[in-house]
Design goal:
Layout lengths: L3 H11 L3 H19 L7 E2 L2 E8 L7 H11 L6 E7 L1 H4 L6 H17 L8 E4 L5 H10 L4 H5 L2 H9 L6 H4 L1 H11 L4 E3 L5 H18 L7 E3 L34 H9 L16 H14 L3 H7 L5 H27 L2 H30 L7
Helix pairs in contact: 1-2, 1-11, 5-15, 6-10, 6-16, 10-11, 12-15, 13-15
This protein binds tryptophanyl-5'AMP (TYM).
């Protein structure tokens, strides 16, 4: 199988012809076969599979980030050894105010803990405190094709949005993301739907590298929550709810007070059907039902029954109140933690050491494989 990545790689430079697709499919089938028969290397820490995910500390976190990612992370440490990074290297692909970036990074790490992610059981750290991310990213750049990166929809979106600063970092962003994940030999990566394309390229890069050098990297699987994986804008339900949306009414921010939350839901765009139904034809109502379901644990069918014969006003109010109920404890805990500087500092220091330990193990192995000289001790 060693020749396969070269064939696939060459074709991916010029676009995918039929032969490239066939080879790619064959390669994927081979990878699936190896996993199914236990041949694929599996990384375990303390008897647990490994999980990696991260968030950018740019802009105010939204309800989408919380319901699509953070909320799902809390209980995963029972099953996985979890690494959750504040991905500040990714943030500078867009111009940042340095003081603000530092403050937001710390706030985000504090928010991880406030959301219930225990820093004793999970590794919460800043990406910039583990130099292995950047080092592995460089190596993986040399195993990634321009053709692949050109196909990334997030790059196209961001390049359109920041036309005055289409830097190389923005282009190779998915490679850094691959490095984040592969550095810890992650088996699973919980993300919202918007990140699935980046997961796919991570798998392709890892499989290509493994086919050349042996089973170096664990091939990660995406882990997408059943609900909340794609929370939409309250003003345009065709778009995802995003930190960078210019219209503040489009997003619920995690630190919004109850009145603001209720007001934003009252203004949410719906339709003229006047019927609370979970259907593709009513994207605004569907989004509100999704939010209500994640916040209350109810199903869309139960929600339809609950609001049968009631107007949108009642329904929007109930959705707003369910969100207030979820965010209030989070906000209170966040306030409390913010006062405890020493505790947060200790979490940052201890967890960066832990992350560095595991990152270095993979990095040294990769460096050796590609032919870098051994360190003299
Ligand atoms: P970021 O910071 O944009 O988003 C963090 C997480 O929130 C999810 N998310 C959503 N989920 C549902 N509905 C929405 N409206 C919504 N908006 C955001 C995202 O899917 C993500 O899971 N590139 C990543 C960060 C990253 C990363 C990684 C993630 C860097 N390296 C390695 C996983 C693994 C990003 O910018 O996410």
């Amino acid at each position: 199988m060693r020749f396969l990545p070269f064939v696939y790689g060459d074709d991916s430079l010029t676009g995918e012809g039929g032969s490239a697709i066939l080879v790619k499919e064959l390669y994927r089938a081979y990878a699936r076969f190896k996993i199914a028969y236990g041949e694929e290397r599996r990384n375990m820490i303390d008897g647990k599979k490994v999980l990696f995910s991260g968030m950018q500390a740019t802009g105010n976190l939204t309800l989408g980030n919380y319901l699509g990612a953070l909320k799902n992370w809390v209980t995963l440490c029972d099953e996985y050894q979890c690494f959750y990074s504040v991905v500040d290297l990714h943030s500078i692909t867009v111009r940042q105010d340095p003081a603000q970036l530092r403050r937001r990074a710390r706030n985000l790490l504090t928010l991880y803990i406030a959301a219930g992610i225990d820093p004793e059981k999970n590794c919460l750290y800043y990406q910039s405190h583990v130099s292995g991310h950047a080092e592995l990213s460089w190596i993986l750049n040399c195993f990634t094709y321009m053709g692949e990166l050109n196909r990334m929809t997030q790059f196209k979106d961001k390049a359109a949005k920041h036309a005055d600063n289409i830097n190389a970092g923005l282009f190779t962003y998915p490679v850094l993301m691959a490095a984040d994940i592969l550095l810890y030999q992650a088996d699973v990566v919980p993300v919202g739907k918007d990140q699935l394309q980046h997961l796919e390229i991570t798998r392709d890069i890892a499989q290509r590298f493994n086919a050349i050098y042996g089973d170096v990297f664990t091939i990660p699987e995406p882990y997408v929550g059943k609900t909340g994986a794609s929370i939409k804008s309250l003003q345009n339900p065709e778009k995802k709810m995003s930190k960078s949306d210019e219209n503040p009414n489009a997003s619920i921010y995690l630190m919004d007070d109850p009145d603001t939350i209720i007001r934003k839901f009252k203004r949410a765009v719906t339709d003229s059907e006047a019927c609370v139904r979970y259907s593709e034809e009513q994207p605004g109502i569907r989004n509100l039902i999704d939010i209500y379901c994640v916040c209350t644990g109810k199903t869309p069918e139960e929600t339809e029954r609950e609001f049968d014969g009631k107007g949108y006003g009642d329904f929007k109010m109930a959705v707003g109140e369910s969100v207030v109920g979820v965010l209030k404890p989070l906000q209170e805990r966040y306030e409390e933690l913010g006062k405890n500087k020493d505790y947060i500092d200790k979490v940052i220091k201890d967890n960066a050491e832990k992350a560095n330990y595991y990152a270095t193990k993979t990095l040294r192995k990769v460096q050796k494989k590609v032919g870098f000289p051994e360190r003299i001790r």
